[in-house]
Amino acid sequence: MTNPFTATWSEQGHLICLGRWEISYQGRPLEVPAPRNEEDMGTYGIYSFLYPDDPEFAEGLEEDDWMLENIDWLTDLFIANDIPIDEQHARWFYQAVNSSDWRCGSCGGCT
Questions:
Q1: Do residues 92 and 5 make contact, with C-beta atoms less than 8 angstroms apart?
Q2: How far is CA 110 from the centre of its chain?
Q3: What percentage of the chain's residues is helix, strand, coil (to nearest 5)?
């Protein structure tokens, strides 16, 4: 099965900090609770504008650790949207947001 979640951050470039999460499950929009809907998700990646390939600049939580850290609000989100509460769906959610996650300063603007 392919990932039923899609996730994008609404802004790019020098306006990245002004964006919000647009996440859907099987095409249905999800309402991510505030303030998380306007913040990075804390997933693992290299977010350096100057050194995008340097693992020294990696930050965030890898998949297993992220799931443990975020299980409470994620479970509430899944219940509210009739999404199965299981490990695979949590992994799919992580993978969807990880591909669009960001950090303040990752645009090369303010640091």
A1: yes
A2: 21
A3: 40, 15, 45
Which residue matches tokens 């090369």?
108
Q: Which residues lie across from 45 on neighbouring strands?
A: 59
H and E: helices and strands count for the chain:
2, 5
Where does the pLDDT of residue 3 fall: very low under 50, low under 70, confident under 90, or very high at 90 and above? very high
Sheet holding 28-30, edge to edge: 5-9, 21-25, 28-30
Q: What is the pLDDT of residues 71-108, one digit of tens each?
A: 999 999 999 999 999 999 999 999 999 999 988 866 66
Query: pTM of the entire structure?
Result: 0.92
Residue identified by tokens 């975020």 is 70
CB 5 within 8 A of CB 93: yes
User: Cα angle at 35 between 71 and 90, to 5 degrees?
Assistant: 25
